[in-house]
Structures are given as structure tokens and as C-alpha cells.
Design a protein that fits this description.
Elements (H helix, E strand, L loop, with lengths): L1 H20 L15 E2 L1 H7 L5 E6 L2 H4 L4 E2 L3 E3 L4 H4 L8 E5 L6 H12 L4 E5 L2 H7 L4 E2 L1
Parallel strand pairs: 1-6, 2-4, 2-5, 5-6
Antiparallel strand pairs: 3-7
């Protein structure tokens, strides 16, 4: 009896997952948006560009005392719906965080892209790679 139910339920659950997540090819009702990465060298070359908005996604307690990339705006990831209203959707947004695998930058970048921002990038290696390279920072 249980085996019969499972053989009916498992394929149904698999179909629901494919419908919403998209499976291995990423085709679904809610496909995960891929946020392109920008290297620290590429970003350094763009500093000072009037179309660049650089956003430091910080954790209030852990990151409050650290410096930031020169020209970066320090914003809380959880407040992205508020601070993103200040930016033109045609500007180039580069997000960075201090996460091990750029998780906050990617997660918020996906949300911004879904809101209509066209040019959103996550800094590859984030704050750690920038600081390790000795590139320009400010308090």
C-alpha cells in the first residue's frame, strides 16, 4: 500500500519541482537568474565611471568597522527594496560582500535583476579579494 502511494507521489513531486525550479536546463516558471561576476581588476579599471554604482552589502555588526572600496555605498542586504529605489535601472551596479562565496551579492543581485535592473554584477571574491590585492579603500 505504501509503495503504491510513493510510486504515485514521487513522480508528481518531481514534476512540481521541475515546473517551479526548472531542472538541469533552468527552464521553469521561476528560473534562477544568473548574476555575472566582475573581477577585481575589471572593477578597479571602472572606478570613477559615472555610470557605476558600487554597493557594499554589509552585515551591521560584523562589518560595521571595516573599510570599504573607495566610492562604495554601504547598504544592508535586507533593505535592498528601499535603497535600490535610489538607482537608475540603466546604471551598472556592482555588489560585493564579505561572504566566502559571494552569496549575499549573488542573492541580492538576482533580486535586483528580477526588479528590472539590467547591468548587475557581483564582485568575484568580494571584499576579501579586493583587500588582499591592496586596492583602494576608504573608511
Amino acid at each position: 500500500m505504501l509503495k503504491t502511494r510513493l510510486t504515485k507521489i514521487v513522480p508528481l513531486l518531481a514534476m512540481v519541482c521541475l515546473l517551479f525550479v526548472g531542472g538541469p536546463l533552468g527552464f521553469g516558471l521561476f528560473p534562477e537568474t544568473e548574476v555575472p561576476k566582475i573581477t577585481k581588476e575589471e572593477l578597479k579599471a571602472k572606478l570613477g565611471d559615472r555610470n557605476l554604482v558600487l554597493v557594499d552589502l554589509f552585515k551591521p555588526i560584523a562589518d560595521a568597522a571595516r573599510t570599504r572600496i573607495i566610492g562604495a555605498l554601504r547598504e544592508r542586504p535586507a533593505d535592498y527594496k528601499i535603497w535600490s529605489k535610489e538607482f537608475d535601472k540603466d546604471k551598472t551596479l556592482v555588489l560585493y560582500c564579505s561572504c566566502m562565496h559571494d552569496e549575499a551579492s549573488i542573492r541580492i543581485g538576482q533580486k535586483l535583476m528580477q526588479m528590472g535592473f539590467r547591468k548587475v554584477y557581483a564582485l568575484k571574491g568580494g571584499w576579501r579579494e579586493w583587500a588582499k590585492a591592496g586596492y583602494p579603500t576608504e573608511p
